Amino acid sequence: MDLDLPLLLADLGRPLLGYLSDKPLRCDQVHLGGFDRFAAYAGRADVGLLLAAYEPYVKLAGASAARAMNARIVTIIAPGAKASPTAVIGAGSIVQHGTYIGEGVSLGQGVKVNVNASVHHGSTIGDFTTISPHCAILGECVIGRECLIGAGSTVRNNVGIGDRVYIGMGAAVVNDIPSDTLAYGVPAKPAGAFTPRKLVIPAG
Questions:
Q1: Among 79, 139, 78, 76, which Cα is nearest to 111's?
Q2: In this structure, are residues 90 and 108 in contact, taking their beta carbons and an 8 Å threshold?
Q3: For the purposes of burial, counting CB atoms within 10 Å of the CB of 90, is it exposed (0-12), middle (13-18) or buried (19 or more)?
Q4: 0.85 cut: is pTM over it?
Q5: Does position 11 have pLDDT exceeding 60, yes or no?
């Protein structure tokens, strides 16, 4: 199952129907049309929406459209994931196989923890943030909403990352990073302001 597609639609209790995207992608799933087809599918009682996009702004747009239509957003914890019973996993989150979610972790709504990533004890991840493959978020970190932590990055324990922060691949985040910032490197340093793209998905 490819969980990196923009918006996946599931026939509840059955396999995936396909995905919505304004641009067809190379994948095994069926392209059901652009985002303008959202209302036709999301309004059905037998269809659930997975906020599977890699980019936080797409997940945010999908959740906003779903709320406007009272559409069902599906939460997935893969069988191969290890999540502590004390962890709180927000609605619409996707926790993929090979991941570790430690004690007292709090994931917000629409958070995506990608394959072989780990989020350790007491850390908090804000709404619609994406933790890329092979990331390690060490203990007691606070990461804001709509962030993207690049593949293979490590965030040291007790570090705070603001909202709408993009961390480049392979970064070592050892100091706090303010909101609306692009940062990368070892150690990670701010490299300028970051403004995420905006997307509005028609909700009927």
A1: 76
A2: yes
A3: middle
A4: yes
A5: no
